[in-house]
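Deliverable D5.2: sample structural annotation.
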Amino acid sequence: MNSSKKSKPAVTPDKDKKPKLVRDSFTIPKDEYAAFDLLKARAMSQGLAIKKSELLRAGLMVLCGLGDARFKAALTAVPTLKTGRPSAQASAAAASVQAQPSAPAQEPADQPAS
C-alpha cells in the first residue's frame, strides 16, 4: 500500500539518441585517395578542419541532391574497379616484384691499356 511511489518520467523522443554508426571498408585507386589530402587542405584554407569520413558523407549528400541526369553522369564518370582483396597468388607475385633489387648498371667492358 505504498501510494507515494513516483512515476517514471515520460520517455522523450529519440532526439537525444546518437545515430548508430556503421564501419565499412572499400577499395579506391591511389590517385583518387590522394584527393582526400587535397580536399582536406582546401577545407583548412577556409577554416574548416574535416575528416575523411566527413568528406565522404558530404559527397553522399551532394550526390543525393543531384537530379537523375547529373546523378547518372557522375556515376558513369567513375571507372569500375575489381573489388575485394588480391588473391594470395597475386599478392605473392607483387611482393616478389617489389622485393627484387633493380638490375645493376652495366659497367663498361675492360678495355686493354694502351
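Annotation notes: The chain is about 45% helix and 0% strand. Confidence is low (pLDDT under 50) at residues 104-108.
The annotation will be released with the project's public dataset once the embargo ends.
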